[in-house]
Every structure is written in structure tokens, then in C-alpha cells.
Amino acid sequence: KVMVARIGLSVAVGRILKTGLGLLGISAPDVM
């Protein structure tokens, strides 16, 4: 369950960073 939680958190953070960079007009690669 710990690994699943970490993966879920990583995906969530990646999406947030990706969205933030997108708003800044920067194309961000997919972050796992």
C-alpha cells in the first residue's frame, strides 16, 4: 500500500507541475 500511495502521489505531483508549466507556456514532458 505504501508503494501505491507513493506512485499516486508522484502522479498527482507530476500532473500539478505539468499543468503549472503548461500555464507558463512551457511544454513539460510526462513525469512519472
From TrEMBL:
Q: Name one GO biological process term.
A: arginyl-tRNA aminoacylation
Instruction: Enumerate the UniProt keywords alphabetically.
Output: Aminoacyl-tRNA synthetase, ATP-binding, Ligase, Nucleotide-binding
Q: Which domain of life is it from?
A: Bacteria
Indicate what this protein is called per its UniProt record.
DALR anticodon binding domain-containing protein
Lineage runs: Bacteria, Pseudomonadati, Nitrospirota, Nitrospiria, Nitrospirales
Q: Which GO terms describe its molecular function?
A: arginine-tRNA ligase activity; ATP binding
InterPro entries cross-referenced by the UniProt entry: DALR_anticod-bd, tRNAsynth_Ia_anticodon-bd
Q: Where is the DALR anticodon binding domain?
A: 4-32
